[in-house]
Design a protein that fits this description.
Layout lengths: L2 H16 L3 H14 L4 H13 L3 H14 L4 H13 L3 H14 L4 H12 L4 H14 L4 H13 L3 H14 L4 H13 L3 H14 L4 H13 L3 H25 L3 H13 L3 H14 L3 H17 L3 H14 L4 H13 L3 H13 L4 H14 L3 H14 L6 H13 L3 H14 L4 H8 L7 H5 L2
Amino acid sequence: MSSHEVRELVARAKAAQEMGRPEAGLPFAARAAAIAPDDAYVLATLSWIQQCSGRYMQSLSTANRAVAADPEDEWAHRLRGWALWMLGRREAATDAMAEAIRIDPSEERALWRFAWFASLVGRGDEAFTAAERAVELNPMANEAWFALGWAAWALKRWDVAEEALVEARRLGPSASHTHNNLGALYAKLGRHEDALVCLKRALQLDASSIYAYRNVAYCLRSLGEWDEAGAFTERDGLRRLHDAERSLQDHESADLRARRAEALYDLGRIDDAHDELEGALSLAQTRDETMKPLRLLASAKVLRGEDSAASELAQRLVTEFADDAYTLSVATWIGWLVADADLAQRAYETAAAGGLDPAAVASCAAEAALATGEPEVARAHLIRKLELSRSLTDCCTHAEMALTYLDAGDTHSAAVELREAERGDPNCSTVIVLRQRGKILIDWRDVLER
């Protein structure tokens, strides 16, 4: 087949992607790559289409082939970086994006992606330099300003972060995330009313944004509007439950049943979620379809007091999903709560060895330390986790911090952390389990409001 025909296949693949139909473009890109297996551009195109189809493992494999075909191909390294990031291998993703910048220091998309990545793996100074360069190259790109705001946040340069995120919102007014993240910054700074204006606009633009819903509820609780926040959170859970059930009327799948179960779980209907998750697993045929329902089912079993079954499922999580940072953090959490220190240590060591998300690794390290009775060591890791995280609603981390303070006899600090945990989620799984097992007996209101 001629090079003209390869170019035609690539063009058809890209046209399908540009029409919002990446799945339709995959056969053309795959055929072109089969004909030209050493052509970096053809392989990069296939990797890109695979990413747009959510096939990140395949995309990484193809991007690796593209890099091997041409180690100086900037696009191949950039695609490799994004695939690694989406697979939770954040350090490696950041390094891959840095390589893309080395090859082409003027590629703004590599610069702002690197800045975003680096800011979340504790490389704030590098992130800030790259973001400034991206803004300099294209001051009209909202993503460049967004990255600058993210990098400034990492460095606690709050004025710069606000200015950059305000500019990102001005340049990208229809992008929900520009409003959500500015709102999150305002909430971080205690400006909850300003935050609510941004967050509610984010929801107007994207009513499915679970992060914006959670951030709104957090701000309402911070303003003392606990009942309103509860009603708001319930509406979100019921909306997601309704959407999943409506889709299930058309066809049944593991993903849809897992989505229904997750909504039930968030609504506190643990037994219903448990049964739905078992149904989702019975339908799962692929690794991706199995991971979330297995993870949620293991967590549900902890809440139901089925420790042995939870431990067995968590062992599966470590064995089958050793490359997923969040899944390993759940396995470590389970190992700690069910008093299986070996499981907690194994999950932590797997996460640490895999070069995964540093925030998730810090979480795993903390829970492994809690499992072996080292609360002060755990607290140091939890502080690191909070430094790396941008989440306002990291309830489990705050609940674990509270436990370390209780162990040290510092009831006031424990109460502050419990309040923060409940602001994030009044139905926090960690708080519930610790109360069930008599590890937390205080009510933060009794301590802080007396």
